[in-house]
Structure to design on (634 residues):
């Protein structure tokens, strides 16, 4: 996922920075979904990256028939539905057990999802073209802004804003946040907590599906994309802080930008930097950038 | 230890089983090579279980110790072609790497947080391993692993190699038995059951978990070192998290916390794998679905199923003694949590 542009110096650095922002946007969506589920339900959803991959493939499958933007929306919504279905049928029976069991169950489901994708779409990587109305770009002052990349960053910003408003300015968000603090007490107040859990799981899966749906034209689509990205999503969550909204946003952008820009000076950094960031942070601040001490530790 | 107790000791029967095992495997249509491979995974799973099954810390990064053991034993074999030394060297390197990591990670994380961090650290070592091309062979993997002879015995034959694997597996499981059935093992078990209470008894839980982490890493390293000699090649993917995932799956399927469960799980899963691979290239889906079903329906794994079957069998006996004593004679199963 490295996109070296022609030309040198500050222009190349700028291109790398922009690429980092795009990668970062995708990480933000993934980590935010993971973190919302973790924060409320206390479940690490290993299948999160499977939703991301399925979102990408669904977009690929639907884009020709219904157009790119509707395909992105449909893929994200379908992933949200699938997440809700999974929560009701498979995750719910595990709430009484230790949290590791949900992690293991979703790990098993990831293996199944990956093989299903290989079976239906083949083992090879597929490239996806951005839609024609986002294909071009503009270049004021020699700096190139490809339209599709700006679209990814803008859409992510809009979604992050919408999720923040949902969590902080609506009564559903109030219930979700109250559920994080004390699910039992919220239930005692007459609120349907299991339904809230299902909706939250759906929201998280929708965000993963949306990230996957938008990543196709940037990095291509392949059956290993879930395996490759799940670790990064975990790393972003750990860096940002477990259960922290802004932690995921800052962590995702940080990892994306660092990963991309450091190639300019030292190319092995692409893969190692997220882990080095995490390790360094772990030593000085185990709860992550914005994490609350004692939560999930 | 009196002769009577020795004869009743489960490890003795395990040793006997190791002698019968290759005949069984061959009778079921697999090769002696497969039998050695199953034992490698049995050691790996037992090693992971020493940590996960006893302290409750689920590590998703023990593949890195498997990899460290494999790489260092493979490289050492070029200098000292004496297999026992190379195996010990691999184990020692894995433990030496694990110690500082345990110091950093164990104190700071538990539960799913622990799983996430070990996963990320393991993946970091994967990227380091494929970058250090001159040492590890990069993405092509490490070749040129020299087996040599052991006291004049040629190890390159599959049968002699099986006997080597069987001895290594026997010694590894004896060590694991000694560790888990000691006072140390009981404290670890207590940590798994109630992490908050153990410090009140005056035990430093972090120290016990750190030690369990290092011992478990050593056993995984030994499994990796043996695998290096078995395959005569170390693929870079051995360090990747998918390899750890396979081991985690095996331990869960066999029965977390039971002594022989993970080893049995290794044999069952790897047997299924070698049977499924020629049939369908989508075999991981079958294993994954089976694993998910176990997590949902039988979280105590094969060992738990065996124990329940044993109890059901005892209950169907004539009701002379309505309160049957707990079946503590089933080796290793009595501790299934």
């Amino acid at each position: 996922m490295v996109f070296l542009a022609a030309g040198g110096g500050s222009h190349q650095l700028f291109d790398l920075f922009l690429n980092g922002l795009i990668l970062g946007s995708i990480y933000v969506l993934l980590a935010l979904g993971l973190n919302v589920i973790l924060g409320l339900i206390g479940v690490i959803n290993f299948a999160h990256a499977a939703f991301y991959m399925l979102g990408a493939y669904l977009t690929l499958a639907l884009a020709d028939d219904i157009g790119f933007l509707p395909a992105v929306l449909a893929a994200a919504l379908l992933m949200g539905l699938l997440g809700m279905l999974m929560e009701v049928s498979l995750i719910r029976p595990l709430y009484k057990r230790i949290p590791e069991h949900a992690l293991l169950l979703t790990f098993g489901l990831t293996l199944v999802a990956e093989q299903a994708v290989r079976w239906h779409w083949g083992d090879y990587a597929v490239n996806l073209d951005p839609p024609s109305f986002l294909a071009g770009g503009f270049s004021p002052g020699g700096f190139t802004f490809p339209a599709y990349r700006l679209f990814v960053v803008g859409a992510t910003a809009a979604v992050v804003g919408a999720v923040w408003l949902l969590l902080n300015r609506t009564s559903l968000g109030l219930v979700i946040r109250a559920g994080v603090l004390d699910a039992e007490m919220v239930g005692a107040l007459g609120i349907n907590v299991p339904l809230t859990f299902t909706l939250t799981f759906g929201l998280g899966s929708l965000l993963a599906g949306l990230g996957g749906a938008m990543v196709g034209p940037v990095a291509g689509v392949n059956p290993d994309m879930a395996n490759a990205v799940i670790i990064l999503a975990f790393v972003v969550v750990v860096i940002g802080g477990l259960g922290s909204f802004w932690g995921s946003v800052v962590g995702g952008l940080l990892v994306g930008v660092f990963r991309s820009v450091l190639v300019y000076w030292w190319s092995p950094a692409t893969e190692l930097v997220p882990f080095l960031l995490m390790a360094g942070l772990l030593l000085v601040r185990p709860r992550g950038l914005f994490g609350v001490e004692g939560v999930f530790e | 230890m009196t002769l009577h107790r020795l004869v009743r000791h489960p490890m003795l029967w395990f040793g006997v089983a190791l002698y019968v095992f290759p005949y069984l495997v061959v009778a079921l249509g697999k090769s002696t090579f497969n039998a050695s491979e199953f034992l490698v995974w049995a050691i790996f799973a037992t090693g992971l279980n020493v940590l996960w099954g006893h302290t409750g810390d689920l590590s998703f990064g023990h593949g890195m110790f498997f990899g460290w053991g494999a790489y260092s034993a493979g490289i050492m074999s070029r200098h000292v072609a004496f297999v026992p030394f190379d195996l010990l060297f691999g184990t020692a390197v894995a433990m030496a790497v694990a110690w500082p990591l345990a110091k950093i990670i164990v104190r700071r994380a538990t539960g799913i947080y622990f799983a996430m961090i070990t996963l990320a650290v393991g993946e970091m070592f994967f990227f380091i391993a494929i970058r250090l091309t001159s040492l590890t062979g990069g993405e092509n993997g490490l070749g040129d692993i020299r087996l040599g002879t052991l006291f004049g015995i040629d190890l390159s034959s599959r049968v002699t190699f099986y006997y080597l694997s069987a001895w290594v597996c026997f010694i590894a499981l004896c060590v694991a038995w000694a560790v888990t059935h000691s006072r140390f093992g009981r404290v670890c078990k207590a940590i798994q059951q109630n992490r908050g209470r153990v410090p009140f008894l005056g035990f430093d839980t972090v120290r016990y978990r750190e030690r369990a982490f290092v011992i478990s890493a050593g056993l995984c390293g030994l499994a990796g070192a043996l695998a290096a000699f078995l395959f005569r090649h170390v693929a870079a993917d051995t360090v990747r998290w998918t390899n750890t995932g396979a081991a985690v799956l095996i331990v869960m399927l066999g029965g977390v916390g039971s002594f022989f469960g993970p080893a049995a799980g290794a044999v069952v899963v790897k047997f299924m794998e070698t049977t499924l691979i020629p049939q369908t290239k989508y075999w991981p889906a079958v294993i994954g679905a089976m694993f998910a079903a176990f997590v949902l329906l039988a979280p105590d794994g094969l060992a738990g199923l065996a124990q329940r079957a044993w109890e059901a069998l005892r209950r169907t006996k004539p009701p002379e003694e309505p309160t049957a004593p707990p079946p503590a004679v089933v080796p290793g199963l009595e501790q299934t949590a």
Notes: Chain A touches chain B at residues 38, 42, 44, 90, 93-94, 97-101, 103-105, 107-112, 114-116, 118-119, 227, 231, 234-235, 237-238, 242, 268, 271-272, 274-276, 278-279, 282-283, 286, 296-297 (CB under 8 Å). The longest strand of chain A covers residues 137-138. The radius of gyration of chain A is 19 Å. Chain A has a mean pLDDT of 84.
